[in-house]
Design a protein that fits this description.
By secondary structure, this protein is mainly β. It contains no helices and 10 strands. Strands 4-9-8 form a 3-stranded antiparallel β-sheet, with no helix packed on it. The protein has a 3-stranded antiparallel β-sheet with strand order 7-6-10, with no helix packed on it. Strands 1-2 form a two-stranded antiparallel sheet. A hairpin with a 5-residue loop joins strand 8 and strand 9. It is flat and about 60 Å long. The two termini are 31 Å apart. Keywords: Calcium, Membrane, Transmembrane, Transmembrane helix.
């Protein structure tokens, strides 16, 4: 990938660099469903279970999987920390009380999963 940057000065200087992208773990965990959908009532207390997601290694490995929320969006706008996820369980819970009067929304929660490797322990 080649990236160019041009300044807005009167002399218009330009700089170009080559960026190498290295993909790792192409055979990482796969979610058991392509999409998870649930309904949550307004006013539920913080810590309410919303849904449980699951991913597993495509190689059949029994290595544990960790889950992370990447982003939460409402109608293409990123919103604050409304949900949390159990790193080992994959259970998504409320981190705030949701109020329909503040705007009903279809929340899109992006989650990724990583396979914890015993060969390369994380610290």
């Amino acid at each position: 990938l080649i990236v160019s940057a041009t300044d807005l000065g009167p002399e218009r200087r330009k700089s170009t660099t080559e960026l190498t992208i290295i993909l790792q773990g192409l055979d990482g965990p796969v979610f058991t469903q392509p999409k998870y959908i649930t309904i949550l009532k307004e006013g539920e207390p913080i810590g309410t279970n919303v849904i449980s997601i699951e991913a597993a290694s495509p190689r059949g490995s029994e290595a544990p999987v960790e889950y992370y929320i990447v982003s939460v969006r409402c109608e293409e706008k990123t919103v604050g920390r409304l949900f949390t996820i159990g790193r080992q369980t994959g259970i998504i819970q409320t981190a705030a009380i949701l109020d329909r009067e503040q705007g009903a929304c279809l929340y899109l929660v992006d989650v990724y999963a990583i396979e914890k490797s015993t060969a390369f322990p994380r610290t």
